Task: structure prediction
Amino acid sequence: MSTIQTNAIVDASGGNTATVNGISPLANTTRFARNLIINGDFKVAQRGTTFAAATSDTMVSDRWAPLIGGAAGGKIGFTRSTDAPEGFKYSTKLDVSTAMSSLASGDFYIFKYKGFERQDIEHLNFGTSDAKQLTLSFWVKSNKTGTMYAELQVPTSSATMELSRPYTINAANTWEKKTLTWIPNTAHTPNSAENGAGMYLYMWIASGSNQTGSPLATTWNNNSNRTTGITNYLDSTSNEIYFTGFQLEVGDTATDFEHRTHGDVLAACQRYYYQIGGASQGGDGFQYLAHGFADNSSRAIHLVPFPHDMRAAPTFVCSQTAGEFYWRAHIGNPTSPTATAIPTLATSTVRMARVDCNSSGFNTVGAGLFFEQKNSVNTFIAFSAEL
Result:
């Protein structure tokens, strides 16, 4: 497999060294993961692996979603691909399905990492003289060469403050490793709760003139000089882009990608989203979803404990056909009542949720029930605490 590794685009004014948290660059620590990004190699895909014409904020992989402005919506499909550089199993493929040969001033398309919790980036010391340099490394492949941008954005009390870094896709259809370094953010403090978003990562795909002012900004600020000279990767349905191996770390030097176990990454992702059932979870269409009991003759209630504390009390998501849900119960209850309405969330905390669902009738109030898929592998219930 042909690959190219390119040199970093480095602003050395920050003065930080490559030492991470006072330890050697390749060491691991239970206090801070070396890689601040969760699921940067796209190994976890709770919601599925294919999303056609994804709309803004549709999660296309755990922790990743498009952010779209103006008329750029629905122009790209996403697929988890096994086309990946050596050392990786997966990448995410962005495939242009509807071309935009020209963009209006407010149009833009971004592949977005959904955010870093403030409490997980406090050691970066944003807004102080001790702020840290940050280095992003990742792999990219495209059939179209050109200039693209990665951006870090910090929400503050007055505005979002961002700083972009350009990189070039030099060779078509070739995996290239990119390394970009950000100067310390000494002036701007995140304005969020501890479990709120303290920073975002934006991978720009296309941008209208509102963000392409010149010259390119070189300090953390809120301005329009964010994507100067960016190539329009929406201009042809032949265009496709692959990404993998995202790593954001403290210092001015990129270290090798921090491969974590699937279980570790899944647990980190389930802090933000937890799904039971659905085609992405496998199974034969009769999978168990939750246990509960008949609260009255027409409603069952179910307690769903989460495998890990979620970021916040979650909202509820489920498949949208009532007939996809049913219960197994003891003989005479009846044995297989079918839902007459889609499930609803009665209450939730960071550790558990109560889900209610109606049926045409339960014969024994108080009887225990198993809530299940009804012969559809697509049936699911899920809980979202995304940033």
Observations:
- The chain has two domains: 3-269, 274-384.
